[in-house]
Amino acid sequence: MSALLMTNSAFSTVVPTMQLAWDSTSIGLLKECARKYQLTMGSAVEPGWAPRAESVHLRFGQEVHTARHVYDSARAAGKSHDDALDAAVDHALRSTFDYDLMRPWFSDHREKNRFTLLRTIVWYLDEYGPNDPLQTVTLANGKPAVELSFRMQTDMQFCGEPITLCGHMDRLATATFDQRTYIADIKTTGSTLGTDYFSKFSPDNQFSLYSFASKVVYSQPVAGLVVDAIQVAVTFSRPGRGLVPRHPAQLEEWYKDLGYWLEQAGKFARDKYWPMNDKSCNNYGGCQFRGICAHVPSIRNEWLQASFVRRTWDPLRVRGDI
Amino acid sequence: MPLSPLTEPDPKSMDEEMRRLDAIISGDPRALTRPQRDQFVAYLRTLRAQWEKDAANGKTRARAPRLPSGTPVNLEDALKELKL
Fold first, then answer.
1. Whole-structure pTM value
2. pLDDT below 50 — which residues of chain A?
3. Fewer CB atoms near the end CB (10 Å): N or C, chain A?
4. Could A103 and B37 be called an inter-chain contact, meaning their C-beta atoms sit closer than 8 Å?
């Protein structure tokens, strides 16, 4: 196949419908619903579909992640907490401003809008910035260990091509209380931060992948995963922190299960058919493709074109340094 | 000029300081100065201090962390829930 035709490097060149490089997003989609997976991911030569309207939750989360990245970079460069916080706030102000329309990012979401974003950044970094027991690791090149892209080859193959696991971890940090290294990830939520909230990460596909990969891809042993959760409400943004443990036997089980899931993916790719899991349609407030799948198959493409846009999700696109 | 103030949903709840700062941060961020951003950060810190004070006094609507059984972790809240 000509490389010019390839729109997504994560897919096989032999069977273009088979993904070979898997991140937590694509594995999660596959586990949730094969049809949703295929509609979102597409193939090597055909991009997937994404809603025309921007997801306020996605945007909000990305801005908070970026703010932490900017803050850590400034701190690694020797800036004080206040200067680094200002860099993060300045970046957030600029990235949430539409310079064509000369107006700020508009969100009519009560909890997630520009003001609550800035409040979240300041309250979170004031809490977990200057005196954080999890100090961001500084890499040999002097940069902070944030937005770390990883890629690891597995012992699995498809038609002779190796299967790869990949993704991006938020932050690698050393704990001042035990001098061990942890992976830290930020989540924003509307939920109250308590036992119930943090227990939802065990089991959890994303954190199992991160824990599994961290044992392999980093030179220093990783003790575990920490979630920096921020409850975002109309009048407050409350940060909280929880440990997400994984026993080696749990990671082995996750990896074994993954093999079964990817075998399924191989069959779907060969058959060019991804069955719908109609028990997932109403999860998390409803699948974005529920309205599409509700139509008869012959007219779904027209409906997709009307309310979705083509988008390539390539897990192999690198974000930061490793 | 911004087309709409993008801050708290209810403009009536915004005090004068918030309105003034909102007008500043709703403009072109490239024109903002560090002292202006510092004022905004200071305002957000004031809000946090006030919210924490209110939370400590049970004056916020934030739900207390709950045990898996649904019982609030905070004893005072638990007693309130039981109307004791």
1. 0.85
2. 1-4, 320-322
3. N
4. no
